[in-house]
Amino acid sequence: MDEQLLQERAKELIDIKRQIKKLLIKEKEMKGELLPLIKEYGAVNFDYGRVYYVASKGAETFSRKVVLQYLKEAYGEALADQVDRDCTKHNESKEILYITVNDL
Question: Is this structure's pTM higher than 0.85?
Answer without folding.
Answer: no
